[in-house]
Design goal:
11 strands, 1 helix, single chain, 171 residues, mainly beta
């Protein structure tokens, strides 16, 4: 359907420590304007740990357990009723802590973070809304959701964008 939300029960697979790299990606399609959350996880008390949404363009927010925040904003209109590939990457090593937002294979925003907190919680992962006071439900289609414990490279993201609609396997 296009209006139901899905909850994936809490699992430590969704927990990322202070020095963990990760990637979150999905294909989305909507013709509806306004804030709509298509992927999210709360801390368990209703506070968002992270979410990825549309507000015409892509919008991603990550909140650590120490109240640190990273926000990324895209430039591509995601409400044109066409399929879009959205990827958020956190790349950490001893020399950098960078968050990147890609839309349709193209880097649209990044932030050098230097976070000291982590993304460990006990809330469910939500698809199609966020489980908090204002749920900001998503109206549209969501496909090929992936959470990875690695920072995808630009080449891999570009490959996923080019092949994602052809049933090619991700690697």
């Amino acid at each position: 359907g296009t209006t139901e939300g899905i909850d994936i029960p809490d699992n430590n697979t969704f927990d990322w420590g202070n020095e963990d790299s990760f990637s979150i990606e999905a294909w989305i399609k909507t013709g509806t304007a306004g804030v709509q959350v298509f992927l999210a996880r709360t801390e368990g008390g209703g506070n968002p740990e992270w979410f990825i949404a549309t507000n015409t363009n892509a919008w991603a927010q990550f909140n650590t357990n120490n109240a640190e925040r990273v926000e990324l904003f895209g430039t591509t209109d995601l409400t044109d009723d066409a399929w879009h590939h959205v990827v958020v990457v956190r790349e950490w090593d001893s020399t950098k802590d960078i968050f990147r937002l890609y839309v349709d294979g193209v880097l649209e925003d990044f932030e050098q973070a230097g976070l000291t907190g982590n993304f460990v919680g006990n809330g469910d992962m939500n698809i199609g809304y966020i489980d908090q006071g204002a749920s900001f439900p998503y109206t549209g289609a969501i496909d090929e959701v992936a959470l990875l414990d690695a920072a995808l490279s630009e080449d891999i993201i570009w490959s996923h964008f080019l092949n994602g609609d052809q049933g090619a396997s991700y690697s």
